[in-house]
Design goal:
Structural class: mainly alpha
Number of helices: 15
Distance between the termini: 57 Å
CATH architecture of the largest domain: Orthogonal Bundle
Shape: flat
CATH superfamily of the largest domain: MetI-like
CATH topology of the largest domain: MetI-like fold
CATH class of the largest domain: Mainly Alpha
Order of helices and strands: HHHHHHHHHHHHHHH
Low-confidence stretches: none
Largest sheet: none
Radius of gyration: 26 Å
Strand content: under 5%
Mean pLDDT: 79
Number of domains: 2
């Protein structure tokens, strides 16, 4: 081994020792963050200098993990002690943790020579994603923009309307609520082929599956929310001679808003899962579920992971949008106000 080959090992050793000393000393989170950034840059730049499987390679991996841990520990302490605001500094912790996971994933797959069929490296997944953007875009439109969004809107809307009807009518409460429990217990694997037979192979059958999956959570949460208002508030509305609909819109629906948004957040993930799984049972030659099913048969695992990554990003953004709408609508609720404090 040539003399210059020792320099990467020496650099990483120094950074690792600095990280260990940082755990023992009360360093500021900014210093820990700077150290983490320096270590991350050195890791990315120096992975090619190590022979995979040697001690220096795994020292690099341990260094990255310790630096990310140090930064998260110091920043969490600063937030708890009120030195910095939770927003936006709190978002740096999951970002750092996610970056450390990706580096760990990349290092393990390369260092241990893991076959691509079992677990491809993030770099390979990223390359596959960039090389197939038109295909992934068409799958996104077919699955998310058509099946997920339309089915989500219909399922949540119908569930909300049925909950209002059940609350209004004791007869419907005795008849429809048990039926809703029955529908929620139906297995997705059994529903999807039936919906394909009823509505065809295009996105309509997947939207129908999404409607079924999102209907019951919205129904149950809305009914629970409508019963959340206290007896004192209802008595006050009666003293004002308020009718059912006045009480509903001015008292009970505002009280039910957190429950409704809880169902919307739950359904934002259920809808995507339902649409993708439904595509396994029949679909045109486009869609996330179709692509995952066909590419895994070809052992093109990197393409499968690219689809999974796109679905994860789409689902996370969808959930985040629902959360933003919830904060804008229910800003008055104690749970929202305490989270913004």
């Amino acid at each position: 081994m040539m003399a210059w080959d020792f320099w990467p090992y020496l650099i990483y050793l120094v950074v690792t020792v600095a990280a260990l000393l940082g755990f023992r000393k009360a360093v500021h989170f900014a210093a820990a963050g700077g150290l983490a950034v320096i270590g991350a840059v050195l890791v990315v730049a120096g992975l090619g200098h190590f022979d995979h499987g040697l001690a220096g390679y795994w020292l690099t991996l341990a260094c990255v993990w310790m630096l990310a841990w140090l930064f998260a520990e110091r920043l969490s302490q600063a937030i708890r002690e009120g030195q910095v605001a939770e927003r936006p500094y709190g978002t740096l912790i999951p970002l750092m943790f996610g970056a450390a996971i990706l580096v760990f994933w990349q290092a393990v797959t390369l260092g241990a020579n893991v076959p691509k069929v079992l677990l491809p490296a993030p770099s390979g997944i990223w390359t596959m994603l960039l090389a197939n953007l038109p295909v992934l875009g068409a799958d996104f439109v077919q699955t998310f923009l058509k099946a997920v969004l339309i089915g989500y809107a219909l399922g949540c809307g119908i569930g909300f309307a049925v909950a209002i009807a059940i609350d209004r009518s004791p007869f419907l409460k005795a008849g429809l609520l048990p039926l809703g429990n029955f529908v929620s217990a139906l297995p997705l694997i059994g529903i999807a082929p039936i919906m394909v037979m009823w509505f065809g192979f295009d996105w309509q059958s997947k939207a129908a599956v999404v409607v079924i999956m999102t209907f019951f959570p919205m129904l149950v949460n809305t009914i629970a929310g409508l019963n959340a208002s206290g007896s004192m508030e209802r008595d006050l509305m009666r003293t004002y001679a308020a009718g059912y609909w006045q009480t509903l819109f001015k008292l009970r629906l505002p009280a039910a808003a957190p429950f409704v948004f809880n169902a919307l957040k739950i359904n934002s993930t259920l809808a995507l899962i339902g649409a993708i799984v439904a595509e396994f049972f029949g679909t045109p030659i486009v869609g996330m579920g179709f692509r995952i099913s066909s590419e895994i048969g070809k052992l093109n695992v990197e393409m499968v992971w690219a689809e999974i990554a796109m679905a994860a990003v789409a689902g996370s953004v969808f959930y985040w949008v629902v959360v933003l709408v919830e904060r804008a609508v229910t800003f008055w609720h104690p749970s929202v106000r305490s989270g913004q404090a």
